[in-house]
Amino acid sequence: MTIHVPGRTYETGRAAPRCVTMDDMSESLSLSILPEPLPDAEAEVVQLCQELIRIDSSNYGDGSGPGEAQAAEYVEARLAEVGLTPERIQFGAARREGVVVRIAGRDQSRPGFLVHVHLDVVPAQADDWSHPPFAAEIDDDNGVPMIWGRGAVDMKDMCAMTLAVIRSWARNGVQPDRDVVVMFLPDEEAGGRAGGHWIVDNRPDLFHGVTEAIGEVGGFSMTVRDDLRLYLVQTAEKGIGWLKLTATGRAGHGSMLNDDNSVTALCEAVARIGQIKFPIHVTPTVRDFLAALSDATGMTLDPDDMDATLAALGPMARLVGATLSNTAAPTMLGAGYKVNVIPGEATAHIDTRYLPGYEDELFAAIDEALGDKVRREFAVHDIAVETTFDGPSIDLMAAALKAEDPQAVAVPYMLSGGTDAKSISRLGIRCYGFAPLLLPPTLDFGSLFHGVDERVPVSALTFGTRVLDRFLRAV
Prior knowledge:
Elements: E1 2-5, E2 8-11, H1 27-33, H2 39-53, H3 69-80, E3 87-90, E4 97-103, E5 112-118, E6 137-141, E7 144-148, H4 156-172, E8 180-185, H5 196-202, E9 210-215, E10 220-225, E11 228-237, E12 239-248, E13 252-253, H6 262-274, H7 284-297, H8 306-313, H9 317-321, E14 327-335, E15 341-342, E16 345-354, H10 359-370, E17 374-382, E18 385-386, H11 392-404, E19 408-415, H12 421-424, E20 430-433, E21 455-457, H13 458-474
Parallel strand pairs: 5-8, 5-9, 9-20, 11-19
Antiparallel strand pairs: 1-2, 3-4, 4-8, 6-7, 7-21, 10-11, 11-18, 12-16, 12-17, 13-15, 14-16
């Protein structure tokens, strides 16, 4: 493989896709490519993250809530005060706002690079939390100082790290080699129809020349042992189909016999869907992940014997398990207005996710389970995304991680959820999840996304800022 860096060309000799280690890229190559991080970026990232969390940008998915306008105003002001010229954009719905800034590179013949983050967060019920969800308090968790608050990992941490890096560039007169476009987007938590999809459809000019992008969810560490940490770089994500099911029947008095009860028909269909056992499919990304993990650990992980492989993975099995099959999870039910009235209509919502290449399999199974009294429609329907774990940008991610953590090994993985990569990839842009964080070994990171007591280590923020600074100036 050839790495092209401004003024240099390097042959790595690495056969992709495998784990990326410093055996693949020499220490001298790493040092020659990667600049030292600017200290003023990490010095302010914690404050920026706290200030962003304190702006309630909850997205309820129905057009209600505060929207992202205040957060967008904050980002615009922070960029303008260091001399940048951001564009604040009103998206396709009320209170949906975002900010875009393009930092001109030295070499205009090179394609541009995109960093995309989202400003909205899922709602939080304060009574469930041990710390106020929008206070951004710093408190210890098992001796590790953390910022507690909604959006701490999804994804105002990456918003703050990105903001800190480009503010530092502006203050220090740093110019990247190629254009770096940064987008602070709204509405990701509701599927991006008034966010990522809107800007792709209505402002494609903002993506001019861009060929690659980073966003959530990836770049975070998973400690295997004291001398080995895997950093999971997202190269794929499952497709999404949020379904609304509707059953109709004969309305009537609750005391009467009724063989056409909409609630009964709906509940039977929902139960059938919830019990579907989808086939296992080991996609190219999962095979690459298992191969990289085998290389890094010496374990024998057979992608054709997933029962034994999952048993061998221990805590990592949860991460891998959700990427082995399609899924369909009933999440919401609604019917009726009075206990003694049989309603004429009942509704449910199902969160379905499908592997790249297996959308038809998912919906064929759903339709068979519905029966003849329930119909479905899409609330949100979006594509699966997959790219390969190779190329100069992947090598530079690995090098930037290794420069800050000598025990780092970068590996590919598939996200069971979805991101704005679904919209951005429609433009032919190659998308990765890379929001680097060095995490405590005992932190259940996956449970923090949309969870109670969401929090991010202070040290992870400063680590990620240094990695991003190194990577984005080298890419």
